[in-house]
Amino acid sequence: MNKTVNVLSVSGGKDSAAMWIYATKELGVEVLPVFADTGHEHPLTYEYLHYLEQQLGPIKRVKADFTERIGKRRLYVHDHWPEKLVSSGMSESESRKVVERALSVLYPTNIPFLDLCLWKGRFPSTKARFCTQYLKVEVIQQQVYEPLLIEGYDIVSWQGVRAEESLARANLPEREDGEGFSVYRPLIHWTAADVFEMHRHHGIEPNPLYKLGMGRVGCMPCINCNKAELFEIARRFPEEIARVAEWEKIVAMAAKRGAATFFFSPDGDGGWSNIHGVVEWSKTTHGGKQLDLVKAIEFENVPACSSAYGLCE
Ligand code: SF4
Q1: What ligand 1 atom has the least distance to the C-alpha of 132?
Q2: Residue to mutate (ligand 1; options 135, 214, 262, 263; most atoms within 8 A of CB)
Q3: CA 16: distance to chain centroid?
Q4: pLDDT digit string, tens, across residues 210-225
Q5: 3 CA distance to ligand 1 centroid (A)?
């Protein structure tokens, strides 16, 4: 009979941490915690992962490498863009400038999220959500699952999803058994309160970002970030907004049309708005037309602790 490895995907968020605590401290199960680094996490999350390692054991870190894909993109841009641009109506000298501009930034930076966007020539979005696939699913598949399967191990993938998070998740079963590969979702019927209780019960702190107004922890910001979350990120972590603004400039250079923004325009006009524009929108009232004076004051007066989960009491 093959030996089984319990692979537990750790994000630095509350659910995967609670799952790891549960597995280790309550079930006594040996797990292989894996963190797929997107390069787009808040520094506090990286620090928190070190804290978790001190409390629970080592984490296997993996990250996507887009060197080969970006190299192929360079070739494609060099060989095919000039003709495509000219046939779309651009002059030859203009098309040369566009190609030179793209080639000047098409080098791997070793930051997976940014490299993914350079390769694609755009940012992921809620409609084209390719980030999870390339930055997490594919990397864990290639760097963790496949080597284990080749060595003859059976894998149980522990997933920290909960039914109350979404309708799609509510329909997921607790277990899915397969030949050599199974899925286990031990938290599927847990509430957010259960998750924090698991931390508290075993004396392990949750990620400090939950006391800094963050409703979720992951990429900063995530493409699924809502208006209130972006407002909170922008007033607390302007350096993260500045980083994304810088990325927008770089990815725009790699894009054929010379524009790329992290979010679609919040006006719903299908247009584009850079991160600073979307942050300004996050300070407005319903409809996004009027500056909300209360929010403007709140933006400048940041409380030391605020938590959507009541962690500050
Ligand atoms: S956390 Fe958000 S932005 Fe990051 S990979 Fe997942 S969906 Fe994409």
Answers
A1: 5
A2: 135
A3: 14
A4: 999 898 899 999 999 9
A5: 32
Same domain flag for 77 and 182? no
Helix, strand, or coil (residue 160): coil
The answer on 71 and 175 residing in a single domain is: no
Residue 39 and residue 46: Cα distance in Å, rounded? 10
Q: At what angle do helices 14-21 and 43-56 cross, to 10 degrees?
A: 0
| 78 CA distance to ligand 1 middle (Å) | 30
Q: Is residue 141 included in any domain, yes or no?
A: yes
Residue 275 within a domain: no
In a domain, 303, yes or no: no
CA pair distance 175, 37, nearest whole angstrom: 26
Overall domain count for the chain: 2
Picking from 172, 205, 238, the residue at the C-terminal end of a domain is 205
Instruction: Tell me which of 77 and 289 has the higher pLDDT.
Output: 77
Higher pLDDT, 183 or 285: 183
Whether 198 and 152 map to the same domain: the answer is yes
pLDDT tens for 283-310 read 988 766 677 777 878 888 888 888 888 8
Q: Do 74 and 60 reside in the same domain of the chain?
A: no
Judgement on whether residues 56 and 73 belong to the same structural domain of the protein:
no
- Which structural domain range is residue 201 located in? 4-64+135-205
Which of 205, 221, 238 corresponds to the end of one domain? 205
Task: Name the average pLDDT for the chain.
Answer: 93
CA distances from 307 to 199, 215, 265 (A): 16, 8, 28
How far apart CA 242 and CA 109 sit, in angstroms, is: 17
Taking CB atoms and a 6 Å cutoff, what residues make up the pocket around ligand 1? 38, 124, 129, 131-132, 135, 218-219, 222-224
Structure tokens of 300?
């400048």
Over residues 69-82, the mean pLDDT reads 98
Tokens 């250079």 correspond to what residue? Answer: 253
Which residue's alpha carbon is nearest to atom 3 within ligand 1? 222
